[in-house]
Amino acid sequence: MTKKQLIMENALELFAEQGFEATSVQQITDRCGISKGAFYLAFKSKDELILALIDHFTTQFTSNIDYLVNTIKDDDELLYKFYYFVFDSFERHSDFAKILIKEQMQSFNEDFMLKMRSYDQMMEQTILLMVERLFGDAVDRTKHDLVYSIKGFMKMYSELFIFYNTPLDVDVLARSLVEKTEILAKHIITPFITNELVQQFQHGICKEVSVDQLLDVIERTLHDIDASIEKDSLELLKQELLEPTLSRPLVKGLLENIQLHPHCKWVAYLLRKHFGF
Predict the structure, then answer these.
(1) Rounded distance, CA 49 to CA 42, Å?
(2) Exposed e or buried b for every residue in 68-98, given b needs 16+ CB within 10 A?
(3) Most buried residue among 9, 35, 84, 160 by CB atoms closer than 10 A?
(4) What is the CATH number of the domain that holds 3?
(5) Domain check: are 38 and 56 in the same one?
(6) Angle value at C-alpha 68, between 62 and 73, nearest 5 degrees
(7) What does the alpha-carbon distance between residue 274 and residue 138 come to, in Å, rounded to a whole number?
(8) So what's the pLDDT on residue 31?
(9) The domain boundary residue, chosen from 43, 61, 76
(10) Which residues of the chain have pLDDT under 50?
């Protein structure tokens, strides 16, 4: 575990226990058993730390959803498993979700807001692929409205897990939202979110990741993981970016090797997009 990972894990525990504002750098370093100097070598400030946590969890969530949608073969189960995963994640990480919501409400950092919008756009693309796969031509004119409806369900019902301490049945919730989504898919007639409007929303937000940017992400990821099959696989994928020689089944297998490692989910997501999986 790197020093940054140690700080992030212990800081998250403290933020969950007593809140962001009430947690000091000194408390974080005490929990980690490191000096303040070591903290400031890893993060310039507590604000930079919280942004790093948000970035880490958001990339994990985005890449996990994309992987789930792209690997589930049974169309009858896809929408249910999508909703179940979303709300199970909210339930397990409700403390972090509260931090994220608070930061979004208070932040005037343009880079942070652009980054969050970029992740949101990636999520929209994943949901759109799911909608097109499940409902096909029947929702060609209304598919973007359906995507925004699904995003609305995610946001509204996630508040039950974030703001209330009452135990909730994720299975029942997922099945209920499947029914609602299927009703909307069958009965929406008048579209509001058009292709043209979506293109306006996306302008300047989603940019293709260059090979150089991918290589930079790979290098940072390699630094964060110990010697393992994941590290070896990532090294081979790095080489494939530089000099393509491997077959597609082999590249896909290497991607599967790194997908489940907690520090490889984002780079796996980016590489899947790059290689067309």
Answers:
(1) 9
(2) bbeebeeeeebbbebbbbbbebbbebbebbb
(3) 84
(4) 1.10.10.60
(5) no
(6) 155
(7) 30
(8) 93
(9) 43
(10) 204-205
**Residues 12 and 107 placed together within one structural domain of the fold:** no
Cα gap 92→186, rounded to integer Å: 33
Number of neighbouring beta carbons within 10 Å of residue 61:
21
Q: 32, 49 in Cβ contact below 8 A?
A: no
DSSP state of 190: S
Work out the burial of residue 169: count CB atoms within 10 Å of its CB; fewer than 13 is exposed, 13-18 middle, 19 or more buried: exposed
**In contact, 6 and 34? CB cutoff 8 Å:** yes
94 and 117 inside one domain: yes
**Alpha-carbon span 235 to 112, nearest angstrom:** 30
Q: Tell me the residue type at 35.
A: S
Its domain, for residue 243, covers 211-275
The structure tokens listed for 262 are 């907690």
Find how far residue 238's CA is from the centre of its chain.
22
- Number of structural domains in the chain: 3
What the block records as the tokens of 120 is 């949101």
Tens of pLDDT along 169-184?
A: 999 999 999 999 999 9
197's CB contacts (< 8 A; 6+ apart) are: 144
**Within a 10 A sphere around the Cβ of 58, how many other Cβ atoms?**
20
- d(CA 85, CA 199) in angstroms, rounded, equals 28
Rounded CA Rg of the chain: 20
